[in-house]
Amino acid sequence: MPATQSRVNDFVLKIATVNGTGSASANGLLLKALFRMGVPVTGKNLFPSNIQGLPTWYEIRANKDGYMSRTGRVDVMVAMNAQTYEKDLNEVSPGGFLIFDSTWPRQDILQRDDITVLGVPLAKLCNENFEVARIRILMKNVACVGVLAALLNLDISVIRGLLQETFANKRKLVDSNLKAIMLGYDYARENFTCPLPVHAETMGDNSRNIMITGNEAAGLGCVYAGATVGAWYPITPSTSLMDAFSGYCERFRVDPETGDKRFCIIQAEDELAAAGIVLGANWTGARAFTPTSGPGISLMSEFIGLAYYAEIPSVFIDVQRVGPSTGMPTRTQQCDLMLCAYASHGDTKHPLLLPANPKECFEMAVRAFDLAERLQTPVFMLSDLDIGMNDWMVPELTWDETYRPDRGKVLGPEELARMDRFIRYLDVDGDGITYRTLPGEDPKGAYFTRGSGHDRYGAYTENSDAYQDVLDRLLVKWETAKNLVPDAVLSKAEEATRLGIVAYGSSDGAVIEARDRLAEQGIHADYLRIRAFPFSAEVVEFLHDHDTIFVVEQNRDAQMRSLLTLESADTANRLVPILHYNGMPIPSECVVKGISAHQEAAA
Amino acid sequence: MTFIPKPKIDLPGQHLNDLGLSLRDYEGSLSTLCAGCGHDSITAALVQALWEMSIRPEMLIKMSGIGCSSKTPAYFVHGAHGFNSVHGRMPSVATGASAANRDLICIGISGDGDSLSIGFGQFGHVIRRNVNMLYLIENNGVYGLTKGQFSASADAGSSAKNGAINQMQNINTVATAISMGVSFVGRAFSGDREQLVPLIKAAIAHPGCAVLDVVSPCVTFNDHEGSTKSYAYTRKHKKLATEADLIPPRGEIKASYYAGDTHPVRLHDGSTIILKKADPDYDPTRRNNALAYLERHRRRGQIVTGLLFIDQNVPDMHIQSRTVSTPLKDLEYRDLNPGGAALAELQRGMK
Lengths: 603, 351
Hints:
The complex is a heterodimer of chains A (603) and B (351). With 603 residues, chain A is α/β, with parallel strands linked by helices. Chain A is built from 19 helices and 25 strands. Chain A starts with 6 loop residues before the first strand and ends with a helix. Chain B is α/β, with parallel strands linked by helices and 351 residues long. Chain B has one domain: Rossmann fold. Chain B has helices at 38-52, 90-100, 112-116, 120-129, 173-179, 193-205, 231-237, 287-299, 317-321, 340-347; strands at residues 60-64, 81-84, 105-111, 133-139, 184-189, 209-215, 238-240, 242-247, 262-266, 272-277, 303-310. In chain B, helix 1 (38-52) packs across helix 6 (193-205) and helix 2 (90-100) packs parallel to helix 4. Chains A and B meet through strand 9, helix 7, helix 8, strand 11 and helix 9 of A and strand 2, helix 2, helix 4, helix 9 and helix 10 of B. Strand 19 (448-450) of chain A pairs parallel with strand 2 (81-84) of chain B, so a sheet runs across the interface.
């Protein structure tokens, strides 16, 4: 047996299966078991754009220090898919373990001396103990949970509890699942030394944490923000966001007596229409949003320009996936930054919110509506597939009961009665934000909304000065936005340093871990996590305060670096891109290697 | 679209409607369309219909896309909000507005380019969704602002001003709408206000998406010999299938309405559309009958007009969605936000 370092509550478990075989619930069981044992844990689903029959992987990282990103290593591989066996075998880190279904023999050439291979006759065990063919397939994954429970020292009573909660009213299902688990558990205990040197132990307290995906959290945020109209066209990976919004609305916003709904969800014919619906609803005074992904933003660009120029609040949530074009719909990237920042033709620019985890998806979804209505402009929240669809452990979401939506500058009949005349695009307050009115309230507030050239009165114009007057005032509003968007988060290094790291969104976890690794190597870097565009003052300050700034992001063309360069041209030569764009969530080792290689070369 | 405010002159003896408003209160800014444009007659009919119906100006929203037709919302009811959106996308903006405030009376003005080409998809889906609105298409068979190209409603064999012959089949707005499941569709001619005003009123009263295809000649690019959308051609070839009139709730239904082959359609708000068959062959309540009739007369080169199909029982978007009767935009935040305790409770399932 190869030498294996003991790794307690610090391992990566990867499970290779075929999609459509019920592996998701087995994977969820493993994740939740670790979570309930108090171990910090995350689960990443690497799945195909397909319904049944193609390879899929689930990667669980348990880490006592709370690191959440991928690492680049695999300590325990469960190779349930013959199709990908060779690849899966090769991916196991030296000293690691591979578990396979030994019902059928493996080819002898598929061997590695530096890992431990454990065969469990899962199919045989299930075939001998279950009758129905479909059940046998499903139970194979469940029996495997039992094997892992024994090998990784998972608390079997926790697993039993989870099964009872999942199948609360279906006693038979609890029994059959438990039977499958014990089959695997007992087999492993009889045939192997349990637990493995790589295993879990009950540790801290996760009772104040939750497991949630970013899309669920964002959908919930839209409910709490008071959004009533949601328009969308189904697109991976944003679909589960509208599913969540819909589910929470059904739970919280249906009159129990009448069945009347205090929301309206419209599945549009395409993303163009979805954007139009959002504009129409916001213009009329409801909070409306659309969840989408990159290809949807491309189609919505026409309306985004209209919303910018006619100053209509609107919320766009882009759960980014891999482009260009259709790209890889079930893989992740941060590749729509430039697209969203300047979406549509002509001079346009838009506030972006950049959540790094589901908790921020919840909070920023609420913030997005406040900003959109305050600034009367389209606001984007850019999540991505990694945040949106994967299971993240985050602190419990909390709610401030004193929160009230910021509806911005809206004049009602009472305010209008005190005015001589309502002028839609007149900058009364000097902040670039003008007053609007809503249809259905007062004929005195009537105005004409148009995407064609207009003057401050809202009237059509082809007069150069009158046109430019409005366009310049929009820049004043952009300056105002800088003071309203979320601040960047600064983490100082333990030692004074001229090195800096800038990252955003789902790259955060990899940077957090990489900074600790790099510090062990003597490389210390301050870290600024950008949470919004336009950049607030501290972002530009950070660039000026450091000699070398590594900009970590998940796209090919260093889009954040480009944005920073546009806003702070004099620091451009200090910005070193660290890029990861193969579609998998960025691993911490990518950041460690990138930065240490740069420092070695510079030394 | 140039904005020219129209001077408002109150004349003594001017008629006032139930709200105490005169016809002038339903006007907008001066039209900048070509003199004689059919669209301006439609505007006048809209002003007349809305005044007669005593619609509160602020309860009206005027939506449009891009093109000559889409300028129309600027020319009526200055006290209503207007939205001149992007080309072919008026239906989606109207859908959103209607979703947010179901009490608004929504009038969408479009053209044949706006609805049958660039916006064909949205035209179909707003019908399918049955958004409660008047969807009026000012149909002239030609692109005006870009100077005379054929539109998708131009008839095969008709000629352009420069002599080019259109080879392609036209998209028949009414037949298309019926086949897509429209709950109300009619056709009229901008030059016949007697017919158009009551049709507009019936369309506004109809609880769903009411499509009106109004042949509206373009005097500059499509009013020549060889055009099938000219004043002369339309006058000569129009074929009246039905006459319609709207009787408001509690309105008096005169005995004369029942002269001939009439058919009252009771609407949910208590008003009644009186349908009078000009042609006894026509049945506007049956899809296949309407489609067959349209095809029969198309082959004869006739333009069938009137209220051509109605089913007032097709559920509109809000009924389909079971939306609460209060407009969504008027709901109190406390009725939308589940609160902290619910959030804590919800998260128990996430542990």
